[in-house]
Structures are given as structure tokens and as C-alpha cells.
Amino acid sequence: MSLSDGPISDTRRRLLMGMAILPFAGLLPRTAYAAAPPTSAVNTTGLAVTDTEVTVGILHSATGTMAISETGSIQAEKLAIEQINAAGGVLGRKIKFIQEDGASDWPTFAEKAKKLLVNDKVASIMGCWTSASRKAVLPVVEQYNGMLYYPTFYEGLEQSKNVIYTGQEATQQILAGINWITKEKGAKSFYFIGSDYIWPRTSNKIARKHIENFLKLKVVGEEYFPLGHTQFNSVINKIKLTKPDVIFTDVVGGSNVAFYKQLKAAGIDLSKQALLTISVTEDEIDGIGGENIAGAYACMKYFQSLKNENNVKFVDAFHKMWGEKTVIGDVTQAAYLGPWLWKLTVEKAGSFDVDKIAAASAGVEFPGAPEGYVRIHPNHHLWSKTRVGRARTDGQFDVLFETADLVEPDPFPKGYQ
Amino acid sequence: MFGDYTLSQLGSIFVMQGFAGLILFSVYVLMALGLAIIFGQMGVINMAHGEFMILGAYVTYLTASFVQSHLPALFSVYFFVAMALAFVASGALGMLTEWALIRHLYRRPLDTLLATWGLSLILQQAFRSIFGAREVGVELPQWMLGSLPITDTIEVPINGIFVMGLTVLITVAVAYIIFRSRWGRQVRAVVQNRVMAGAVGINTERVDRLTFGLGCGIAGVAGSAFTMVGSTGPTSGQLYIVDTFLVVVFGGAASLLGTIASAFSISQTQSTLEFFMSGSMAKVITLLTIVAILMLRPQGLFALKVRK
């Protein structure tokens, strides 16, 4: 904790100065770029940086199963890059991006990451969505010393010099939500339903330890279904039999849609039966249908309906660029943070060199984040608030609760493993 | 897990569980029927079956959007129109596929597998380009949502009953077409001996095209019905394809009765096991049982006796 608190005042001052000139950036004459520091000073390791341009990579699935989720991240990253360029770029250089398609295939992700780092010499990569793709890319960015900005909320248990995790790790996301619903609903018993892979299993393990060991309450059922499972009637009957106070879900993908449709069809009324999900954002509701999930609670760090000034501007800009109808989920917002955090870190380090960025990351603050002020922890995750929203029929969330303070990221939680 | 419940509560849970099994059975029959016709009668391994289903789902989505904005008064009955359109759209695309692709590959079953797999990728990407990568939400009329309380404690999902009714209807219709109509006789004749059927004057090419179209059309109706219980996205078809082949192969490829019997046994096993253990384990045990039975009976549950 103390590590991150050291350089704050210094960073904040520089940031404020940066922010103050932002409105005028567009007015600056072309010659302003000449004032940028010489390339030889800010790029000592041969990255793709020229006197006027710096190249970064965007690496997501534009095709395949995961395109459903990753499209939003790609859009957010392009928006951030465009805004940064409009405000004068990074160290006086415009950001140029090279987009590669991971095609929902994990070896392809690794290959494309290598291509971006070795052939294109990108200064950083914004990318990956599933933990599987990140695990495939991790050895590559470590071997070739790249910098990856990873947007998804995930299971934790990882930390790397070469990765900044802009989404929440599991304890950050889950614990506050469970505490809130326990207090709000007087819940005594929980029923877990998840898709069968690493993220739901790890998240549920953390949730179970928290519920049983810290809150002294009961978990009455824990169920996993293969990815793509579409029939949930049996488990819904089991829920009817066990009558849990809270259904806690981390079902993903197409299964999600089937699950909520069948829950509604089975007569389980989410305005009476409390359901807390950590996997449904505004993106997913598009497919599920608002009327099928209205009343469910979701806990994560961002909702599109947040009222703060940053978010109103962000949602406006996003709609202007990608159409009024696009919705913005938690991960999309986290993806938007990637380019900005990288820019701020580069400016703090005064260099594009990966080693210097990795060292300078701790303590970097971004007060302009749509979710509100965030700061990079020395463990390369973000300090952020956790919020609980209730789904409405129009596919948005009413934000009912947010933690008073930023929650510390704790990727290796003691007592939860 | 049954400690704290009265007998009547347990009773109603078991009744609802029975319904859950029947609904799963209907879903399996509905998705496998089209493939059973194509694979069973024509021997074509149609890997794009799931995409024909999703085409039906997208047609339903388009119909829903259109009716909602132009004819809101008719919204409560649009679903029937949507199913008919889904049948026509998927059936037409099926016949086109047969004409352009399948008919050149009848003697090469493994090549049809690759060709239809390629087709499924093309269709997926086409859906993605046209409708976007994200899933779309199909709005249903109010009466199709929620559940029907039969007694105080027994509730049955309305969409489940709807799928069951639809399955019965389509199965009866298909059985009538195949076993009672003149065209059905031609289909069976072509299956049993293509050369001889051609020799007695049956236009085998036309029969093939219509059979393939019928199979794809039924897939379209299934996809349309599944918008009630599942997701509609470019790759949603992939969720069904494995189960579909499982049902058809386990039932014995050339037999409609076999398809129904196999759908029944798989769905009941799956749904009962799911009630007593976790979903992933239930799937593992179901699959192991199927593998074991297929080792003993490679031809599937029911096999058509033909002279080879």
C-alpha cells in the first residue's frame, strides 16, 4: 500500500497540468510536435516509435465465439486512442494501432502477440479477453518484454511485470457484493451456478470461503455446466427444492441466455427471488432480453448508467463513434482505461521503454476514468470501487450501492485459496 | 437433500422434474428430426445443421422486429408467422445448398462433411456481418412467457408446453409425409436403391433436393422455437450440433423411430442425472453410457434392414 502512495503528489501535479492544457490541445499548431522529446531519448530498445508516431497493438477476437464479447473492447480501445490523439498524443506522438484478430483461438492469440512484438515492435498491446487467451499470451509478452493491458474481470492468482490488469480480480469484484446482499436481504443461504471453467470455479471458491468462514452462512448448492449448455430445467427444479435466499451465478456465453429465459419461464420471479450475478453486463442483457432478467443484481465496478461527469462524456463519445444503440458493459469500460493508463505511464516515465513503464506503473492515477478515479497498485491491478446494480427491463442497471472507498486489488488472497 | 420436505412438496418437484425431462426430449427431437431426414435418408453429414437452425432464429427475430414496429396489434400471434417464414427461408437455402454443393458430392460422404463444415463457417460469418457479433434478443408475446400453475405447487413453463406441442405436430407431419404420401414412398425408394428408383422413373435429383430442403426447413422451425429457450447469435448453432448428431447416431441413422427413442433415452438420463449430481458430471455419465452402448450396438438403437 505504502509503495503506491509515494509519488502521488508529484504525479497528480503533472496530471493536473496535463489536464489543464487538454482543452487547448486541438488548437496547438503543428509545430507543437517539434517540442516532443527526441526519439533516441524516449525509445532505447528499438520499439516502433518515430518522431511523430508510436505504434500499439490491439489483439482481440473479431471472429469466432468470443467476438460477441470482445467487439466492445475493440471499440473502446479505438475510442480511447482517437481521444488521446485529438488531445495531442503521447509524448508529442500520435498513436497508430495495428489490429490483429485472435479469432477466439488461444494459440492464434499467442502467435499474433509474437507477431506484434517481434515484427511490428509495438510499444504496448491492448488485448485478450478470456483467461485462456491471456494465459497463452503471457509467456510471449514476458519473453519478448512487451506490455499488455488486459481488460476483463478475472479470477486473480496472477501477476506479471509485463501485464496491467485493468479489470477487477475476483475478491475485488465479489466480496463487496456478497456483503451487500447479505445485509440488504438478510440472506442466510446461497446457491452457486456457474459455467465449467477456471473463472467461475475460482470465483465460487472465493465466494464459498467468504460465505462459510467469514460470514458464517450456508452454501446449499454448487453446480457447474459445460460451456454452451442450453437446458437448465433440472437445476431450476433443484433451486425450487432448496429455496436458497440468494442464487449466485457466473454462467457465461450462450448458456447465460438459456438460463435466464428458462428461469423466467419456470416462474421464478427475480423481484422476489434474489439473484446476484458476476457475469452479466449490459452486453449480455442485449441477448438475454431485459424482460427476462429484470430484478437481478449484478456486482462489478462499472455500469453504463453511472451518473458521474466522466461517464456521461464517455457514453456520449462512445455513442457518437459507434452508434446510439451500442451498450457499454464493465469490460468495455475497463478496455477504455488501457490506452489512457499506458499514455499516463509513458508520460510519467518519460519514455516508451517497457522496463521503465513497468517500473513507473505503480501509483499512476487516472482521475478521468468513466468509473471514477482509479490508480495502479504495485501488483499491477487497479484500485477501484465495487458497485451493485439491479437490472431494468430496458437492459440498463439501477446502481444501488457502491463501496465508500477504492477496494484494494488482492490477486493472491490469503484465506481464500 | 430431501430431509426437510413434506411428501406433497417432493411429489410436486418430481412431477416438475418429469416435465423438465419431457421438455428436453421435445427439444432433442425437434433439433434432430431435420438431421435424421438428411443424414438418415440421404447419408449426407450436414455439419451446417446448427446454422440452418440459427437462420430460422434470425428470421424469427426479424419478424418480431418488423411486427413490433409496423403491426403492433398482431404481436401476440406473430410467432406462428415467424415459424412458417423460418421454414421457408431455411428450406430454400437448403435446396440452394443441395443444388450448388451437395449434389456434386453424393458419392463422397467425407467430402460432404468438409463442404458443409465450410458452409457452416461461411454462414456464421455471414450472420456476424449482417446481424452483428452480439446475440440478439427476440421479444416474445406476453402469453408465451412465464409458467402455468397446474396446482399450488406444480408449475410448468409455457414455452416448454409450446415446444412439446410443436414437436408432436412436426413429428406426426414428417411421419405422414415419409410413410403415407406418394413423395415419401419415392424418398424411401431412393434411399433403398437409387439406381432402381431412377430406372422406374422417379426423378431422384428432385427427390434429393426436396428431402434436403425439408430437413433444413424443419431445422429452421426448430431454431425459431428455440428462441424461446436459448440464445440467438452467429455461433449459437454450434451449441446444438453435437447433441443433434449424438441423438441421430445413437438412434440408428436411417430410422425416425430410432431418433425418437434415442432422444427419449438421452434426455431422460440427462435430466434425471442432472437432478442428482452436477451438470458437468451428468453430461460425462450420459456420454459414457452412449459410448458403451454404441460399442455393443454400432448400428445404433434401431437399424433399417436393407440388403447391401
Task: Report what the structure shows.
The complex is a heterodimer of chains A (417) and B (308). Chain A is α/β, with parallel strands linked by helices and 417 residues long. Chain A folds into two domains: 2-168 and 306-384, Response regulator (Rossmann fold, 3-Layer(aba) Sandwich), CATH 3.40.50.2300; 170-300 and 389-402, Rossmann fold. In chain A, 42% of the residues lie in helices and 17% in strands. In chain A, strands 7-6-8-9-10-14-15 form a seven-stranded mixed sheet, sandwiched between helices. In chain B, strands 1-2 form a two-stranded antiparallel sheet. The mean pLDDT of chain B is 88. The chains are: A alpha/beta (417), B mainly alpha (308). Chains A and B meet through helix 4, strand 7, helix 9, helix 10 and helix 11 of A and helix 1, helix 5, helix 9, helix 10 and helix 11 of B. Chain A: This is Urea ABC transporter substrate-binding protein.
Q: What's the β-strand tally of chain A?
A: 15
Number of domains of chain A: 2
Structural class, from helix and strand content of chain B? mainly alpha
Written as H for each helix and E for each strand, in order along the chain, the element string of chain B is: HHHHEEHHHHHHH
What fraction of the residues of chain A are assigned to beta strands by DSSP?
15-25%
Roughly how much helix do the residues of chain B carry, as a percent range?
over 70%
Largest interface: A-B, 46 and 53 residues
Cα-to-Cα separation, first versus last residue of chain A: 22 Å
Q: Specify the CATH homologous superfamily of the largest domain in chain A.
A: Response regulator
SSE order of chain A in H/E notation? HHHEHEHEHEEHEHEHEHEHHEHHHEEEEE
What kind of sheet is the major sheet of chain A?
A: 7 strands, mixed
Average residue-wise pLDDT of chain B: 88
Low confidence ranges of chain A: 1-9, 22-34
Question: Would you tell me the overall average pLDDT of chain A?
Answer: 89
